[in-house]
Amino acid sequence: MSRGPAPVRAHTPAAEDAAEPDRQFVTALARGLEILRCFDAERRTLGTTEIAHITGLAQPTVWRLCHTLQKTGFLHVVPGKDKLQLGIAAIALGSAALAGQEALEVIRPLLQVLADRYQVAVALGRRDGDSIVYLLRCQGNSPLLMNLRVGSRIPLFHSAIGWSYLACCTPEDREALIARATSEGRMGDEADQQAMATAIAQYPERGFVFHPRPAYQINTVAAAIELPVSERYVVSCGGPDSLLPEPLMLNEVGPLLRQLAKDLQPILLMGRHI
Question: Which of 76, 131, 170, 186 has the fewest Cβ atoms within 10 angstroms?
Fold first, then answer.
């Protein structure tokens, strides 16, 4: 339900903060964490050249950081390949984070109800850099099964779930994000930009964005969950247009998703440790 190339550089809040003078900021640590962020459900193994391309870091810097991450157990060499993957230390850290996410287990059945009703996919995500990372994904019995799962990264500027995040940003924050992406050539062509602008402009009235993709015969709606800006979540519902034609999305599925976002708000507010 998304498209667009992987970002050339992984922008993170830490990296952005580092642009301002901060005597307490440890640049080497931020760069090491930026390397760990390169790995996700789709990019399970990476070479140092790929990591350098994704992060924008110099190759010698990547070599040194990856060596350190290997020594500390956060990265591991894939047997028989010149590739790296997350090590036991990173997996243990992720498991510790997931252990406290009781709110997600409360939310899962609510997403599954909508997924089963229309036999499509419903996902909950949160922004990380220039992507929305899936925290939950529920799949109905759809004839079209997308190769997406928990941990998948969806491009912020090329997806309904990303557009819904942008739609609930302040105009200043949204303009800053778009300006940076434009300067780095990650905004797509003029038609893509116009489609995004239209969807965002319609969000206040609709309460959701609608993203049709005729070339792929997929339609998606998405809505933001109103929380403090640093903790904002987004939810989406999408599938083949044979199951989710535009009139159904605009008149029925979109409003249901808008209500689902409202229903999830108090659950996420109570479980803000997620």
Answer: 170
